[in-house]
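We include the entry.

. . .
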Amino acid sequence: MPFTFSVWNVQLNNAVVELASFTGKEIGILQSIREIPGLLAISAILFLLFILEQRFAVLALVLLSAGVALTGQFTSVLGFYLTTLLMSFGFHYLETTRDSLALQWLPKKTAPAQLGKLLAVTSYSSLGAYGMVWLLQQLSLSYELIYLVAGAIGLCLAGYLWLKFPVFQQSAQQHKKLIFRRKYWLFYLLTFMSGARRQIFVVFAAFMMVEKFHYSVSDITLLFIINHLVSIWLAPKIGKMVQHFGERFTLSLEYIGLIIVFTGYAWVESSEIAAMLYVVDHIFFAMAIALKTYMQKVVDEQDIAATAAMNFTINHIAAVFLPVILGIVWLTSPEWVFYIGSVLALLSFMLVQLIPYTLRQVTPMAPQIVNAEG
């Protein structure tokens, strides 16, 4: 998934500006459309009534890859909106099931370190994607062809996973119904704030690099490569930090750092300093491992799949309306978008102080391979 999505993402801001003359308003609308499937991620539970969660993840990869392949074929404003919607359904269903399966399969005691290693693996995959985009851009290939190649690679991978990859037994029978429990209220609130914060980075920090500092696709690709090189080295260490110091300390550090970074975005006038802030912002993103392991520790094991789906829905409540609102703010005062991000980070920091210093550690059974029809 990271490979296919990274090709889509790294070219997006340049593609929509060059092919469809997007402004901050249109990019805000597109990003809001992109987040609608995230708001509907809870519907993944309904599909699990009929299909194994692991199999559903592969089908989600098919949707994601098809959306990416079609992106370059419809280059009007409406075309970008529709292909983004298709891609996003696959992306968010796959993200939901990936997190759920990882938290079910990994022992709670070592999950932070293991998730850090998995994050490093995704960075390797993204690096491959960025390297391919950079090379094809040097060969002057069109956006349309690059998107088509990336989508085809994703579809081939999905076919391999369906036919050849073993199916694992879940350690606990998962609830296949909508779950919203009062005892998880702090996790839900932190998830909502995380979704709001994410939009500042994903939408407007990247858009600033293109609109304000005139970064080309090759420049953006190089910046993303630096981000993932840092992640490969640092993500496993962040996982070990979560494992050693706990979720409260790690998340507090993340949000203090984000207050500084977002304020820096508002003030920055140098493209080099903006790039440094962007890399630091990406590092803090890796600390979101702590929010996942916090969920793993406070949620009952049989609730993991349903809570992971609910997590994505809550995470995307702000994501649906915030890009549109901030896109309008951007037209008159881009710096205020980042001041709002600083306020969100401060509120998140205050909520994190409610996390207990010590959380329970219960190790689930290791997953077993079962028959694919099981």
Q: What stands out?
A: Residues 58 and 160 are 10 Å apart (CA to CA).
